[in-house]
Amino acid sequence: MNVPEMVDSETVPAPSPAAGPQGPAAIEVAHLIKLYKTTRAVDDISFRIARGSVTGLLGGNGAGKTTTIAMIMGLVLPTSGRVQVLGHAMPEQSAEVLGRMNFESPYVDMPMRLTVRQNLTIFGRLYAVKNLAERIERLASDLDLKDFLDRANGKLSAGQKTRVALAKALINQPELLLLDEPTASLDPDTADWVRQHLQNYRKTHDATILLASHNMLEVERLCDRVIIMKRGRIEDDDSPDQIMARYNRTTLEDVFLDVARGRVAEGTSS
Amino acid sequence: MSEITVHRAISWHRIQAMVLRYWYLLMSSWPRLLELIYWPALQIITWGFLQNYIAQNDNFFARAGGTLIGAVILWDILFRGQLGFSISFLEEMWARNLGNLMMSPLKPIEFLISLMIMSLIRLAIGVIPMTLLALFFFDFNFFAIGLPLIAFFCNLIFTSWAIGIFVSGLVLRNGLGAESIVWTLMFGLMPLACVYYPVSVLPGWLQWIAWTLPPTYVFEGMRALLINQTFRSDLMVWSLAINVMLLIASFAIFLALLRSAKRVGSLLGGGE
Questions:
Q1: So what family is this one in (chain B) (predicted)?
Q2: SS3 B82
Q3: In sequence order, what are the beta bridge partners of A50?
Q4: Of A91, A188, A248, B35, whose CB neighbour count within 10 A is largest?
Q5: End-to-end CA separation in angstroms for chain A
Q6: Is residue A88 a contact partner of residue A28, using CB atoms and an 8 Å limit?
């Protein structure tokens, strides 16, 4: 496999305005590449995500979803390409935007020995949340955390931990929320409840949500737009309805299987 | 003040948040709290009795009363200062919380300052009882060293932070597989820092290396004070100058290792 030369981010062209829905962009990604030694985790992807939208990153294991989100967050440096978040270049201008975004991921935990309230207090302070005690009470009420607010995080069930992680992700009322498998390991009832909450949050705060998921039903229900990734590349990018129509399928799960098994969509074959 | 200036300034609010996090952590586990006191206490009792025994049989040690106990306490400041810094850092790795922190507005310098403050808190919990034991069991008043003690303490704690920052960078970059460096690196300095003996006992070429280490000046200074009742300010100035260079270098290395960690994606996992 050829290893491309490092590209100076200054020389990479800005993403095309036609790369995604119109309107002010929350995220703009241009020619993003990430190599781990000789593995191409992300292979020259570009997209633009409008503010106030919910976009799903779909793909199997190793498709590059988590690496893409991590590069958007600034936790992983791209090999080349450019990322802009809320109008600022990442990671160079991360200080300008980190307080306006937040994330939840199964790759990170909340400290186990601290109580839920202590954890939320610390993250609230890190994000300089005003009226923090009130904010925590509000989140506890919204996310049904009151019964275990003073219990150590390590003593919670998987579902409770996910709700706490979501509370942490919402503590600063972010304009941009990045979620990696937000309902993984949840029972259907709790997962549905979390999705409902995310939908409400998006509506009430006009927030932008980018989520990576294996859960097709979740993506169908939550997302205005789906970006399907495979082996680090974007295979398709459209609304869930359009994608299902293009593949002549009634569910995204069937589309996912088509993509995973190399069955090409109508009108997309070259 | 412009928005950018505000964002780039160090936030004491965020530093307080991190110190609070470590304080909660410390208070949540009494065995860990006890451990902070247990080892220094054991050290001082063992070495204190040894000092008493030697002093009974040797005129030099009888005259240089307290050099061994003083060395033990100063060594503990150096060692436990670094450990206090590094363990707080390791707590983030063990908790897989680093991603949350790196994704928050917390800046690396704020993170490191909070670790420094925590190292002082942990050190105080361990060393103050140690000095009290030295006073009651061995009639050695550590605080009677007076103002020079401030110079000794500052120089040792600066070295401990420099090493703590460097080691944390290594763990950040290489994951918990590099954890053992946290516990062992400082011991590598012990023979060369001349904790329990003067630099003059080393071979000539090793003396040259020993003088590149800031703690060497402190331990020499302590012996000069306790044996000859002379405060060697020149030694403290040299120690401080090398410490400043070490701190700058360790911070630069930490940032380089953080960048490297982001390049290889190790912040996402944090495991081995």
A1: Belongs to the ABC-2 integral membrane protein family.
A2: helix
A3: A25
A4: A91
A5: 23
A6: no
| Mean pLDDT, 10 residues at a time, chain A of 270 residues | 36 38 81 91 93 91 89 93 93 90 85 93 95 94 91 90 91 94 80 87 93 85 91 90 87 82 57
Q: Total domain count for chain B?
A: 1
Rounded-to-integer distance, Cα B92 and Cα B148, Å:
36
Q: Check CB contact of B3 with chain A, cutoff 8 Å.
A: yes
Q: Which of A76, A83, A122, A161 to probe by mutation at the B interface, max B CB count within 10 Å?
A: A122
Report how far residue A42's alpha carbon sits from residue A58's, in angstroms, rounded to the nearest whole number: 14
Which long-range CB contacts under 8 A does A261-269 form with residues at least 24 apart?
A265/A236, A268/A236
Q: How far apart are CA A221 and CA A4, in angstroms?
A: 38
What pLDDT is recorded for position B59? Answer: 66
CB B25 within 8 A of CB A111: yes
In whole angstroms, give the CA distance from residue A38 to residue A1: 7
Q: Which amino acid is at A7?
A: V
- In Å, how far is B142's CA from the nearest CA of chain A? 36
Cβ B222 vs Cβ B156: under 8 Å: no
B contact residues 79-138, partner A, Cβ 8 Å cutoff:
91, 95-107
Considering only the beta carbons, identify the residue of A70, A121, A123 that sits closest to B268.
Answer: A70
Rounded alpha-carbon distances, angstroms, from residue A207 to A43, A211, B89, B114:
28, 13, 33, 32
Give the range of the structural domain holding residue B65, as residue numbers without chain letter: 3-269
Quick one: tokens of B109? 């310098």
How far is it, in rounded angstroms, from Cα B13 to Cα A209? 28
Domains of chain A: 9-260 (3.40.50.300)
Q: Using CB atoms, which residue from A75, A113, A122 is nearest to B268?
A: A75
pLDDT at position A221: 85
**Confidence at residue A264, expressed as pLDDT on a 0 to 100 scale:** 63
CA-closest candidate to residue A75, choices B102, B168, B7, B106: B102
In tens digits, chain B (272 residues) has pLDDT values of 444 444 458 899 999 999 999 999 999 888 888 888 898 898 888 888 888 887 777 666 666 667 888 898 899 999 999 999 999 999 998 888 888 898 899 999 999 999 999 999 999 998 899 889 988 888 888 888 888 999 999 999 999 999 999 999 999 998 888 888 888 888 888 899 999 899 999 999 999 999 999 999 999 999 999 888 889 999 999 999 999 999 999 999 999 999 999 998 888 765 44
State whether residue B2 sits within 8 Å of chain A by CB. Answer: no
CA separation for the pair B168, B165 (Å, rounded): 5
In the numeric block, which tokens belong to residue A66?
């988590």
CB atoms A103 and B103 under 8 Å:
yes
User: Is A112 in contact with B91 (Cβ distance < 8 A)?
Assistant: no
- Chain B: residue whose CA lies nearest to A38: B264
> Among B25, B105, B106, whose Cβ lies nearest the Cβ of A114?
B25
